Amino acid sequence: SSTRYYYIYGGEILFWKIFDSLEDWFMIISLGIMLILNFANVVSRYLLSSTISFTEEITTNLFVWSCFIGAAAAAKRGAHLGFDLVVMNLPRKFQRIVTALVTLLTLSLFALLFFLSFDMIETQIMLKQETPALGWPEWVISLAITVGAFFCFVRFAQAGWISWQKGGAK
Questions:
Q1: Within its chain, how far is the Cα of 122 from the centroid?
Q2: Euclidean distance between CA atoms 141 and 65, whole angstroms
Q3: pLDDT (tens digit, 9 = 90+) per residue, 72-117?
């Protein structure tokens, strides 16, 4: 079940309503585009005996974006796998501490990914790296790490805050 996070400071904020659905809409649109391109490529291969070469690059890059945005969408729903057997058997006070520690470590990981991705993007811009088939700037694909890490950071922070308010583990 999806938990809604946009109740902040006692009121419903339009920004959070929109933010709450961004991952879902991105996933719907990108998966739709991948489906159409792959279907067109298969039809072209069997009917015309030739492939549409750029479709593989687009679908691969959209898949990279979908993985990072999908990780945030899963975090929003609490759908990431977790081993909480040990945590659930701790006293409530320690559950809260361990959950807070895990949340801080998770947030540290995504903050690190977010900031380190800027170095990678800067290098790709400086070297003018391009994708092989379409010649798109490579940093556009790498931006998926930055955007995905940002969304994951926000979603795990929200989940951690809700868990803290509830007093510990789920």
A1: 21
A2: 7
A3: 988 888 777 777 777 888 888 888 888 889 999 999 999 999 999 9
